[in-house]
Design a protein that fits this description.
Length: 159
């Protein structure tokens, strides 16, 4: 079947298997390797992307379901070749160690800040509860998201 959708602001149209997962289309058809596959079972959050602004596990979403929808991946966070505020703060705060969880964490955090510009620490923890990190102990990640939330941001978390 043919899938036509918008990925990181660009319309794409690709031929896919009827049973392809969104994760397969992103990584294999479109070469967007930032989105990771960890558990393939909806448990680790490494594959988190945004579909019409909502954070979803791309390993669980049939690609056919995103026909005509708007997808954002970690590759779409940078603006004009520069990392966005969350990406910069993750680096500065030591919120990245091995980095495997980072793309999914960033997308969950982006979805949170777009729906709630001033989340509490508890709300941040809840927003990333589906994203597992084996390295950091989460505190540095929550610190980074909290620091970005505290910054004045005209209209968009990633500006
Ligand atoms: Fe999708 Fe783990 S790879 S939730
Ligand atoms: Fe290694 Fe999170 S930085 S899993």
């Amino acid at each position: 079947m043919r899938l036509t959708t918008t990925v990181n602001g660009t319309e794409v149209s690709v031929e896919i298997a009827a049973d392809a997962r969104l994760l397969d289309v992103l990584r294999e058809s479109l070469g967007l390797l930032g989105t990771k596959e960890g558990c393939a079972a909806g448990e680790c959050g490494a594959c988190t992307v945004l579909v019409d602004g909502l954070a979803v596990n791309a390993c669980l979403v049939p690609a056919a379901q995103v026909q005509g929808r708007g997808i954002r991946t970690v590759e779409g966070l940078a603006r004009h070749g520069a990392h966005d505020a969350l990406q910069r703060r993750f680096v500065a705060s030591g919120a990245i160690q091995c980095g495997f969880c980072t793309p999914g964490m960033l997308m969950s955090a982006t979805a949170l800040l777009e729906r709630n510009a001033t989340p509490t620490r508890a709300q941040i923890a809840e927003a990333i509860a589906g994203n597992l990190c084996r390295c950091t102990g989460y505190e540095a990640i929550i610190d980074a998201i909290e620091a970005v939330a505290a910054q004045p941001r005209p209209g968009h978390a990633a500006d």
